Amino acid sequence: MAYDYITRAQWGATRPTTSRPIAKNLKGVALHYMGFHIGGDTTRLIRSIQRTHMAPPRGWWDLAYNELVDLDGTVFEGRGFLSRTGANGSYRTNRDYIAIGLMIGDDQAPSEAMIEATRSRIAVVRNFKPKATAIVGHSDLKATSCPGPHVRALLDSGAFEGTFASPPPLSTSPAAPYERPWWTLRIGRRGDGVKWLQWQLQRRAYKVTVDGIFGPKTRRHLKKYQRVVGLVPDGIAGPKTIKALGA
Ligand SMILES: [Zn+2]
Hints:
33% of the residues lie in helices and 10% in strands. It is an alpha/beta fold. The protein has a six-stranded mixed sheet with strand order 1-4-3-5-2-6. Strand 3 (67-69) and strand 4 (75-77) form a beta hairpin. The longest helix has 17 residues, at 112-128. 42% of the residues are buried.
């Protein structure tokens, strides 16, 4: 399933003051909600949430969530999947669970698009950490009303489980260096175009090193990527693959 993936650069994020890694033995994903009615310009709201989280009295490193999903099913990059969240309420739970914030209040039920996009992002986490299978609500980790009645009911019914054959997100955001001709990247190539490709894969939680060298490992992950998004799994990034990745 395709959905918009809005990078930090695209929504105008401020840089985090620091970050910490998630647990090696990540347990899974914790779902949150905003707790107030969401309407209007989501991008602007996310900028304001980030400001609030980073300002006193909180003074957090960054927006608390790893990612956010709105009612249109648009995914916004928060801290990113590999950066420890600040949303779960304790050192241990922040380390052990990735936090996805659903952009709804008590009076709003998640849309199908929101549920689908969230499921797809959970699939990306599991690609990266196959043992991180837990899907919990914030209130399973701490005494809180979050993630609200609607998400709680969906969690209890297993709505976020689904099938986990979903492809990684189709990004709309390169924001990375190119080289020319960058539109055909294959094994043996080196340079900024390869770095861009590796970065796009890594952003989606593939275990690729961004070294600008297109070796067997990059090819293997690229093939895997091509297969799940329904492209020819030839391990060569031609125009179609590059476009799918986010150019
Ligand atoms: Zn919460």
